[in-house]
């Protein structure tokens, strides 16, 4: 997770490769941003490999299963104006600041 601060807003970027948009939940309240969901398991494709055999992994480092990321919100965050977009495996959450 990356968190950047600009003059008028915060931008939280979370890398979520292999996750579908319907597998992501974004919650915002006065105290925190919470992003959670699940990443499907990845199995080795069997096309072109002996059919019916199960793969034996020598190394398995791809993330799978549930995930959770949270960030405590600064007091000047306008939680009523938060927006998010998910594109190319990146979730970007825009958290505007209150105007003074």
TrEMBL record:
The keyword Flavoprotein does not apply. It comes from the Eukaryota. Keywords: Stress response. Gene3D superfamilies: 2.60.40.790. The keyword Transferase does not apply. InterPro entries: A-crystallin/Hsp20_dom (IPR002068), HSP20-like_chaperone (IPR008978), Small_HSP (IPR031107). Residues 1-100 form the SHSP domain. PROSITE patterns: SHSP. Belongs to the small heat shock protein (HSP20) family. This is SHSP domain-containing protein.
């Amino acid at each position: 997770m990356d968190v950047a601060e600009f003059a008028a807003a915060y931008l939280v970027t979370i890398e979520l490769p292999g996750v579908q948009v319907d597998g992501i939940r974004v919650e915002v309240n006065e105290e925190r941003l919470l992003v959670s969901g699940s990443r499907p398991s990845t199995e080795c494709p069997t096309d072109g490999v002996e059919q019916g055999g199960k793969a034996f992994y020598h190394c398995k480092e791809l993330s799978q299963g549930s995930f959770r990321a949270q960030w405590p919100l600064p007091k000047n965050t306008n939680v009523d104006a938060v927006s998010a977009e998910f594109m190319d495996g990146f979730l970007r959450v825009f958290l505007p600041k209150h105007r003074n």
